[in-house]
Amino acid sequence: TETRPLVGAEYKLNEAQEHHAKNVLRLNNETVRLVYEGEAYLAHCTLSQSRFKVTVTAKDETVNEPAAEVILAPALIMRDKFELVLQKAAELGATRIVPFTSSRCIIRVKQEKKEKQRDRWEKILTEASQQCKRNRIPVLDEICRFADLKKVAADVRIAAYEAAGVQAQRIPDLYDPQKSVMVVIGPEGGFSEEEIEELKDAGFACVTLGSRILRAETAAMYALSVIAEAPGVKR
Predict the structure, then answer these.
(1) pTM, entire model
(2) Exposed, middle or buried by CB within 10 Å (0-12, 13-18, 19+), for 115?
(3) Dihedral class, residue 232 (left if φ above 0, else alpha if ψ from -120 to 50, else beta)
């Protein structure tokens, strides 16, 4: 919601919320979950004369968020696949998305399309977060260069590398649910050897995601799934 809900108060949904309620959730006379600045509330939703009204009934103390920041840094890949990554990142608990371009990226967003593209990406993140009842929508950074990844702060910094070898470290060896984590996923063509050395010099640990070579979008979802299922993570 755009303002903090008050228990007992009645609200009307805005146009975007009404579209989601009517065409996606198909709600009528049901309980819904409202979120404002990380706090959640339960409300009764009714449809009257083609307009949705919600009456707040109670505060929902459930927090569907990781204990510490989970940053996903995915390289730009083909549009439909990148949008799938955004959707699943929201569902799997990423708190921040840092898109980047690297030497082997075959996709570049044209300057005149950046604003429209960002609006679309933010809509995907918002709808996915609503669908899975998150308390917060992941923060979406502006597209950055590969060299700028080293500026992103995190307690644990990980890069998925297909040539790391099956004996290399894996995400569970490094991840601590109480510490912020950043996971970097390369483009379709992977990272160059020079880029891997840059990541290592910046303190990133190169990890294996197993013996099979995964597509970029699969690697992102796999990494976030492993983090979400780590021992000690609140489910």
Answers:
(1) 0.84
(2) exposed
(3) left
